[in-house]
Amino acid sequence: MLRTLVMDVVCLLIPVDLLGLLKWRSNTSLLQQNLRQLMKVDGGEVVKFLQDTLDALFNIMMENSDSDTFDTLVFDALVFIIGLIADRKFQHFNPVLETYIRKHFSATLAYTKLTKVLKNYVENAEKLTEQLLMAMKALEYIFKFIVRSRVLFNQ
């Protein structure tokens, strides 16, 4: 009962847009909208719930492994989060992201989906200039996720 009460209080503190993403399984019909809305949430709120947000993104990707419906939106959301952490304002969350990749990240097939979206952006650079530019800025961490995913897959 106490745990439920604590969770209810925490949910009241999370912005509605972020909460929609974190509770994505409860209403999958709003998933695309919630992924788009994530990129409008205040950066301070996103980094407060960094691990939960990353877990949600990769769970969405992996639980829809037979489809590429959400891959681009998840990729863009991941690039958005990496961009936040690259910002001077949130640089102190860099070690949190590094630790997440090394110790908590577990999406063994994410490398295929991340690589596919990145390849699409490169191949269609003329049409997707802005998306490709944002992805290039986040490339270091995109590759860290790809490499870690592939290592986990091989194990």
Structure description:
With 155 residues, the protein is an all-alpha fold. It has one domain (41-154). It has ten helices and no strands. The protein is globular, with a radius of gyration of 15 Å. The termini are far apart.
Task: Provide the β-strand percentage band.
Answer: under 5%
Q: Work out the count of structural domains.
A: 1
Structural class, by secondary structure, is: mainly alpha
Give the SSE string. HHHHHHHHHH
Low-confidence region ranges: 2-13
Q: Tell me the number of strands.
A: 0
Helix content: over 70%
| Average pLDDT over all residues | 88
Main beta-sheet strand count, sense and barrel state: none
Distance between the termini: 39 Å
Computed Rg: 15 Å
- The count of helical stretches stands at 10
Tell me, what's the shape? globular
Keywords: Coiled coil, Signal
Signal peptide: 1-20
Organism: Ameca splendens
Coiled coil: 111-138
Ordered list of secondary-structure elements with their pairings:
Layout: H1 2-13, H2 16-22, H3 31-38, H4 43-48, H5 50-63, H6 71-86, H7 94-104, H8 110-123, H9 129-137, H10 139-154
Helix pairs in contact: 2-3, 5-6, 6-9, 8-10
Short synopsis of the structure:
It is built from ten helices and no strands. It has about 160 residues and is mainly α.
Highlighted features:
mainly alpha, disordered N terminus, DOCK, signal, 10 helices, coiled coil, 155 residues, TPR_DOCK
